[in-house]
UniProtKB/TrEMBL annotation:
Keywords: DNA-binding, Transcription, Transcription regulation. Transmembrane segments: none annotated. Residues 215-238 are annotated as: Disordered. It comes from Streptomyces lasiicapitis. Residues 4-120 form the Response regulatory domain. Residues 149-214 form the HTH luxR-type domain. Residues 229-238 have a biased composition (Polar residues). Signal peptide: none annotated. This is Helix-turn-helix transcriptional regulator. InterPro entries: CheY-like_superfamily (IPR011006), Sig_transdc_resp-reg_C-effctor (IPR016032), Sig_transdc_resp-reg_receiver (IPR001789), Tscrpt_reg_LuxR_C (IPR000792). SUPFAM superfamilies: C-terminal effector domain of the bipartite response regulators, CheY-like. SMART domains: HTH_LUXR (SM00421).
Length: 238
């Protein structure tokens, strides 16, 4: 039986993509709202069974204030947080605010769906490996906080960073090629290298990872590609 749910994320493209995937699996998605600041009001007014709430900085003070308000005014709504690899503080803050679960933003749709079903059933929805990682960090704290975005940025060449930013902006192969002054086949090769280095299987996953880790905030924004592209390369996008 499908779940009545909402998807709330700062990145509308990612929210709508997740909402579409869940609709295809038989769930009733009430809304895919972009502004996290208005999440509480929207969830309270719609009263879904489960709310998927995206966040890029789970350890930041006040990040889960919307969850607190939702649980205060609509205690029957189960909130599952979608976020980056969490620190122990991030997991603790999510559950302390009243969240029913925590799912990594790059989790496969099957994992997200399992979390939704567990949350609706009143169970804690968090992957065992996330808890194990959190406990390991508590027992063996790193000398410096792990900066995933900076680590990923150092893995890519400047040109690959530009390609990733353009992918996250929704540009297809021809637009990337036009904006960078390269052939579509070369742009396609750059995209495949970026996906390989990031360890993801699609452009959407790459965009999600870049957004969640803060990589996009660190990268220099490229000049947008022209609106009309006329390129003789007829090869379809890969």
């Amino acid at each position: 039986m499908g779940v009545r749910l909402m998807v709330v994320d700062d990145h509308r493209l990612l929210a709508e993509a997740l909402a579409s995937a869940l609709k295809l699996r038989g769930h009733r998605v009430l809304a895919a709202a972009a502004p996290a600041a208005g999440a509480a009001e929207l969830v309270i007014s719609r009263a879904p069974e489960v709310c998927l709430l995206g966040t890029a900085t789970p350890a930041e003070p006040g990040m889960f204030d919307p969850v607190v308000r939702i649980k205060r005014e609509r205690p029957q709504v189960a909130v599952v947080v979608l976020g980056p690899v969490p620190s122990p503080r991030g997991i603790a803050a999510a559950f302390a605010s009243g969240a029913s679960g925590y799912v990594r933003h790059d989790e496969r749709i099957e994992g997200v769906e399992r979390a939704i079903m567990k949350a609706r059933a009143g169970e804690a929805a968090v992957a065992p490996q996330l808890l194990q990682g959190a406990f390991s960090e508590l027992l063996n704290p790193a000398a410096q906080p792990d900066d995933e975005g900076q680590r990923l940025l150092q893995m890519l060449t400047p040109r690959e960073v530009e390609v990733l930013v353009r992918v996250a902006d929704g540009e297809d192969t021809r637009l990337i090629a036009a904006g960078m002054g390269i052939a579509p086949s070369t742009a396609r090769t750059h995209v495949q290298r970026v996906l390989m280095k990031l360890g993801v299987g699609s452009r959407l996953e790459a965009a999600a990872l870049a957004a969640r880790t803060g990589l996009l905030d660190r990268a220099e924004r490229p000049t947008p590609a022209p609106d009309h592209v006329n390129n003789s390369d007829p090869t379809p996008e890969g």
